[in-house]
Amino acid sequence: MSTAYFYFTETLKDFLPRPLRNGRITVTFKGRQSLKHLIESLGVPHTEVGELLVNAEVRELEYITQDGDQIEVRTEARHQPVDLRFVLDGHLGRLAAYLRMLGFDCLYNRHLDDQELAELVAREKRVLLTRDRRLLMRKIIQYGYCPRSLDPQGQLTEVVRRFDLAARITPFRRCIRCNHLLEPVSKEAILERLEPLTRKYFDDFRICPACLQIYWKGSHLERMQKMIDQVVKE
Ligand SMILES: [Zn+2]
To answer: What span, in angstroms and rounded, lies between the C-alpha atoms of 119 and 107?
Structure first.
């Protein structure tokens, strides 16, 4: 039997069983065990792990744990994905809509099962957002995040902070319903589809080329801007 000692950063303690949240955690194990395996056996998905220090030296998740190792698990981004595109599981529909409002590429399809979701994430090198830790622990998932909040706006705030999105927010750019990029459209071309007040007060319109939803900078955009300001402030 071998023994290793783990110290987790505060923000990772949400994943640990309650009795283990204070101080050092002693783990006994047999044979060759990677850090990934031991950390996940405590409930923390590898996608949540930032820097790993073993006896004060930086190591990777694949490192084979040695008897007596002192392991510090931090949450700072180990390597950020270059391209921030997301896949959300079937329970995070509101978060998907909010992220699209902010201009981010988000795939969301309630009909995909876990295996299909994981394959999609790996194939397109996207970031998986899910509250399902088991799914995040799959080896093919390179980037992911587990929103702690149950409230969609709280989840949005967490994701913006975790992936440092504030500076990349581009509202009025992407279809909230189907994720396509919007295109400018002349008012004349869609005139008969507009409500009288919209027709009277707005001139700048965009359209989704896929589902033909029309967007304009109306009161919903103001509400959205308020929400964005709130999220960025937090
Ligand atoms: Zn659309």
So the answer is: 13
Which of the 8 DSSP states describes residue 172? S
Rounded to the nearest 10 degrees, what angle do helices 93-101 and 152-162 cross at? 60
Which mean pLDDT values do the consecutive 10-residue runs of the chain (234 residues) have? 96 93 94 97 94 95 97 79 89 96 95 96 95 95 94 94 89 93 96 93 94 87 81 79
CB atoms under 10 Å from CB of 174, counted, come to: 23
Residue 214 Cα to ligand 1 midpoint, Å, equals 9
Q: Cα 45 to chain center, whole Å?
A: 13
Whole-angstrom distance, CA of residue 144 vs CA of residue 153: 18
- Of the candidates 68, 69, 58, 71, the one whose C-alpha atom is nearest the C-alpha of residue 6 is 71
Asked whether the whole model's pTM tops 0.85, one would answer: yes
Ligand 1 centroid from CA 149, angstroms: 28
CA 161 to ligand 1 center in whole angstroms: 27
